[in-house]
Amino acid sequence: MKTDLTHFDKEGKAIMVDVTAKSPTARQAKARGQIRMNEAAYQAVVTGTAAKGDVLGIARIAGIMAAKRTGDLIPLCHPLAIASCQVEFQFLPDILAIEAVAVVKLSGQTGVEMEALTAVTVSLLTIYDMCKALDKQMQIEGVHLLRKSGGRSGLFVREHS
Q1: 8 is a domain residue
Q2: CATH of the domain at 108
Q3: How many domains does the chain have?
Q4: What is the mean pLDDT, run by run of 10 residues, along the chain of 161 residues?
Q5: Which of 10, 21, 37, 144 has the largest count of CB atoms under 10 Å?
Q6: Which range of residues forms the domain containing residue 117?
Q7: What number of CA atoms fall less than 13 Å from residue 37's CA on the CB side?
Q8: Are the C-beta atoms of residues 94 and 80 closer than 8 Å to each other?
């Protein structure tokens, strides 16, 4: 199956995709990633005793803010009027990790996959920033799109989450 890349014109120059002819539809994307850390950093987040304060509260706000600014960060992304962005966290004690999941929604002419991925990534980077005094070897991993819906391409669900 041949797929043409949409961010290039016929001469191969980078372009922003023209979405003016597309009808607005309800669109949603869900992304996930995690950060692994040492026991001290993990316990500081779990118990709320990190020196910089409420790690997950700040990381949640950072992720939401990042989703809203994705068009400023990724060169060819459209600036979007996001209707909803939720960032949630789950503790993974067996592997000393924290999972971030972001769900972004809007009614528009283009999808919100990049916004969901950006929300997850910046949330995890914020956790790193707030805990780096306890563990400089933290590792962000597995950031990926779980699901997207809406638009011409319809529903996508990742086979192996």
Answers
A1: no
A2: 3.30.70.640
A3: 1
A4: 65 80 91 98 96 95 98 92 97 98 95 96 98 97 97 88 66
A5: 37
A6: 25-151
A7: 28
A8: no
